[in-house]
Amino acid sequence: MRRDPSRRGCVLCLVLAVWICSSSLSQISFALVLQNLHSSSLHDDPRHQRRIGRGVDKIQKNFEEWSKANVDDAILWVDENNLRGMGRFEWTPMEVHDSIIEFCWDFNISKAVLVWDHGQMPFVWARCLSLDAKSMSAPQLEMVVLFSGLAKRADDVLLHESKEYILTFPNSTSADWKSMAFVTSDRELNYKLRRQASTSDTISNTAPLFSDSKRFWEMLRSSKVDPTWKAHRKNHEYISEALSKVNESLHSFYKQQRRAYKPRREKTWERAVLVETFRRCLCDLDTKDISSGQSESSQMRITQGNFTKFFLTDLPLRGYHLCEGLVDEDQIYKMCPAIHHGSYDGPYRLDKQQRRTLDKYNRFLKKLHDNEQVRKE
Q: Among the listed ranges 13-27, 124-138, 280-294, 309-323, which one has the minimum average pLDDT value?
């Protein structure tokens, strides 16, 4: 019986395809192993540690010189998720938030704008903080936290709001690019900010200070915690507990899906859930009496300054929402759904696979909530 040559050709093609796929997979796995070995060896390499130390020293020197040159006008702008990503998402949003407050007090920076990707709506939260509310001479920090919402990115917010501040801030003598410092590792954003600053008609032609997120994160990680500020971190236990519960729910969700939860390789939808939980907690602090933190957090609050007042009055005109001053319960719930049981909307740029996974997670949360209600009854 004569064999069909076309059939034999198909078999050979199939064998060749299997061999190519297996070799490609082995190459990929080998490359991943090499990458892990390389990263671990770099972590233990003394020369690599010295390079990191030199980078941290350089960035500390740059910030010291910049803050001294702009004593009362220094403004720190931070691309928050970019900063978290440089640390491979080791820190929660609350830990990053606290570390930047500590950094601002250490370097006598009186104003900061922290910009987050995601959030279910463009949102602004502002505070005037003091280490000691009873002493007017204590270091004070005017802090603004912005959430980009579902449609925009943090890059767009940083670019647009920094320009709006320069153009519209009432006290034009303090609104200058030289008084600003930007923390981001996004090359495109860095380029756009530099171009925007160079083409703007301001008092001085001095460029703002730019800091790489990786080095900035290493500096925050290696900094010593001020014992006074460490006591004030207790004020944020409520938010930290909420974020830890979200991490637990993510772990349980992946376990139900028979998949491994990898918090150090955070996916976009997971990041959106964490950031939205952080936003809801900040909103909740504005609208509710929280027995675990409200009485203590009021110790850090002082009268809103001109900087925070500017953002709280100007940003709502451009579509941003805020919870401060809300009394109506329906409006409060719309702005701040249930922290542990409300569903999450991912950003519009989520791909289909991540969108489906987020929908599954929302159904998982609803089932948990229903089970809790049954147990209570």
A: 13-27
